[in-house]
Amino acid sequence: MSLADAHRPTSRRERYSLMADAASRPFAAGAVAIPLALPVVGYLSGDVRVMFAVHLFLGAFWFGTAVLGAVVLGPVMGSLSEGANVEFAKGFVPRMNLLMEPISVGVVGSGIGLAAMMGLWASPSPTLWAALAIAVALLVLGFGPLHSFTAGMFDEIAAEDTDHERLAELNKKYGMLSLVELVLMIAIVGTMVGLRWGV
Ligand code: HEM
Question: Which of the ends of the chain has fewer CB neighbours closer than 10 A, N or C?
Fold first, then answer.
């Protein structure tokens, strides 16, 4: 089933089923499985270089998406006409909803695992604690308000009678919070630099 004949979901289960259909089932499976499996593979490899590569790949992906979303896509979506916005969001929102939460868990998981493989938890530096604290804040933001805004946006675009006012309102809130996410993201990359140079 495509979003063309969808409706506003009535339960969480239905929402995810509609989302997976809208994004395509193979995309949904890959979006969840790959970011969660990579850190496990990195850790089980026992090779710190593999884990480092996994962490960089996922971290760069998250950082890049956060910058693109906050600086380019958010403002562009906000300035589209109602119809064009919904058309764009139909393809974009379900895919992003499915992908970004597993990516965030993958980045934080691989970072914690990498620190373990490098023996850094034996006597954690202030920057390692800072990275962990910022990571927790990012996850709370992502799984909390950002999640509920994007779930609401999905509900509206899946509905036949899209409530454009609610969609625009959610879009605006999402845009503002994604700037907070961006600031935290820049801060955590700052802590990565600190880790690299042993601070
Ligand atoms: C948005 C989240 C994150 C991003 C974008 C990110 C990005 C990066 C980047 C670009 C590097 C390579 C630069 C360097 O070697 O320092 C790196 C390294 C590293 N990251 Fe992260 N990271 C994130 C979260 C975390 C978290 C939560 C932890 C652990 C609590 C962590 C632990 C590490 C460690 C241990 C290194 C290796 C440091 C070294 O080379 O000495 N990262 N990260």
Answer: N
